[in-house]
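User: I'm designing a mutation panel for Aconitate hydratase and want to avoid disrupting the core. Could you give me a predicted structure to guide residue selection? Please restate the sequence first so the numbering is unambiguous.

Assistant: Good idea. Sequence first, for numbering, then the predicted structure tokens:
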Amino acid sequence: MPFSSTVKTLTVNNKTRKYYSLPALGKKLDVKINKLPVSIRIVLESVLRNCDGNKVTEAHVRQLANWQPNAKREEEIPFVVARVVLQDFTGVPLLADLAAMRSVANKMGKNPKAIEPLVPVDLVVDHSVMIDYFGTEDALDLNMKVEFQRNKERYQFMKWGMQAFDTFGVVPPGFGIVHQVNLEYLARGVHKDANDVYYPDTLVGTDSHTTMINGIGVVGWGVGGIEAEAAMLGQPYYMLTPDVIGVELTGQLRGGVTATDLVLTITEMLRKEKVVGKFVEFCGPGTSSLSVTDRATISNMAPEYGATMGFFPVDEHTLDYFRGTGRTEEEIEALETYFKAQKMFGIPKAKDINYTKVLKLDLKTVSPSLAGPKRPQDRVELGNVKRTFANLFTAPPEKNGFNQPAEKFNTAYETPSGVTLKNGDILIAAITSCTNTSNPSVLLAAGLLAKKAVKAGLTVQKHIKTSLAPGSRVVTEYLAKTGLLPYLEQLGFDVAAYGCTTCIGNAGDLLPEFNEAIIKNDLICAAVLSGNRNFEARIHPNIKANYLASPPLVVAYALAGTLNIDLMTQPVGKGKKGDVWLGDIWPSDEEVQKLLGKAMNPKAYRNNYAQVKSNPGDLWKKIKGVSGDVYNWPTSTYIAEPPFFEDFSMTPAAIQPIKQARALGIFGDSVTTDHISPAGSIKETSPAGKWLLAHDVMKPDFNSYGSRRGNHEIMMRGTFANVRIKNLMIPALPNGSRFEGGETIHKPSQEQLPIYDAAMQYIASGTPTVVFGGEEYGTGSSRDWAAKGTQLLGVKAVIARSFERIHRSNLVGMGVLPLQFKGNDSAQSLGITGDETYDISGLEEGIKPQQDVVLTVHRPDGSKQDIPVLLRIDTPVEVEYYQHGGILPFVLRQLLS
């Protein structure tokens, strides 16, 4: 091996261990390794340790060791990760793909055990619970019972996976959110292999918020299920060498300002900086002052600010966190010894590292804020919420507004039960999601605010759907121990679930009379949540104004009941002694600080996670899965054998030219994976709803798209079916606004149809299709079905102004061409309406990464136009994936040969 001289030793627990020394590599190559960003060094260690001359070459090591802050990014890094983490929505289809690969191997007379994850894989069941019950002490128990009833078939399948694969583990429902379980339990800091070699914990996960783990110095980020599958099966994760933006934090947060306010400020700042596809690394004295839980909150929202990672190096605070969460002394010693030996311990100063660029933020400039009503980067200072909401009420959609007549703003509508609804009324108030629900500083603040509110005589109106979904069971323990839980419960914030709830559309439904009033009167009602996502139709299809806020502000707004209030100058409500102001009930930093010690109890963490194996709960124990190495695919509307390996052969077919294609849809900017991928509830009238009814599934048993991700029949019918998506092929409505919903105009019949129905007609007639998009096509969660569904609908290419990182690579991974308009070209500027046919040429002679290809537009008048577009197949390995028809056939051919 070319770098054997870099293997050095260190002592942990009085035993000598080996490691691949980066300082030694620096000497060997005469490179100042200590000037590299810490995140780059951790990736470099993986490249060095896995250098086999084949997948990972000596040239790869030299390239990355010589990383330059402002070089042109053309080189790719083969990054081999230590482990993979899955959440259940994305994990079940991965397990289905693995099971399908085993079926193929079995049919071909090969050993099905050849298909086995080669790195440890942990699936955390956290996305399946819904808030059907709320505001009662038995909400948690009732919601879990309904969850198990709904998801029995999926859980049986997971139990098969646990026994079929040696390296596949499941954390059952009811333990917490995947990212929190990852921080508190799965993350090891450093690993040790069979040869006693230490190496840092690294991972990819199938949830875009996997980045939360960056808060404890672990390199990892969210990938599509497609890429995670490849990583599980021993493929390196290939990525272009990234730029690294240093964020130098100075000063300290002022009193009353929370970690949530800080993360919303950072999200706004970094979105403006356009950090998509880049690493962000925090440095400077302000960073050193932040607790690990505050760091994890900032790291969590890296997808919202667009970065691949929001990375914090390992320091004393990291060791304290490992200690406080019950890790063993040996693990903590290994973490400290290893990172010190690699000269990567401590938060660096900005001047000591060669960053691509350094951005500065003085923490004392951060102020209390919310973000909304439609995007996490649209921060609004607390004192401006009322005014901006009123302005957005009448503003046009292109300005993120609601396009409503001003005279409607204060009209009140009475529902049959006597509740009066107005624009701006809050109907959902949720302390939810991985961003904040385990951060003791904000949760204790929410509890203290609730206590003061209750004592002042304030209440939350009964029709507001309140919920508390902690990231971990330990949270409930410390809220109970500090005596704050009863006050949250009195305001309706009972623990309703341990899982990802409101943020992913699992808030459960509103009362039918509220839905009716909102739809009938086009009301702009609101949700306030402590989550990280507030895209249109994500929280609830009928709630159009969604604001992200810290847990204490969620409670404050629930008390106020409306966005149409300035909490800085108006009272929150009337209490026993008259007006109660936010300042009267807002907890001081000293009050929060006093209780923080109770949140880090090593014994509580150890006892909690010991139960994953010893006592996973009666509901989980009762689930019975089939056994054996090969799945028998029993009839199920949840799990079906995916069609990605139909007509599989060991030799890939030749690439076919795309001729006479039709447009399936033309979309504007910021079309998210929520718009593309099936998510949320399934409507009876939708193609997926009709399919379920035809298969004898009644409406109450539909469950959500997320829970049915293991069945391609439902998922392809739900692709592009979002109620808020706007297909520009459909003519504007008489009032000038756009039609909303997953429909298109079929050509040449001119019939308006659901996109799924039109796609099936095109497939039946042998007509290829393309999709046009604007800027940031595919932004949002790393939903593999956004790409899988696109492929199953027969789409051959997506042509957009720009792509979100994960979705672009997922399209390639499914054999769909991502093409990017050049310069100022767009579907709109080129006058593309969907009446044309399209050819794509330039790939016949062989494919090169990022080459130019030609889009030929044939117009109805007989004219044609050749438009150069950029092929966004970015790396040589992606060329291979595309030639094989996608990453799954590519990996299967490798494993079976």
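For picking mutation sites, this is relevant: Residues 4-73 form one domain. Residues 137 and 194 are 48 Å apart (CA to CA).
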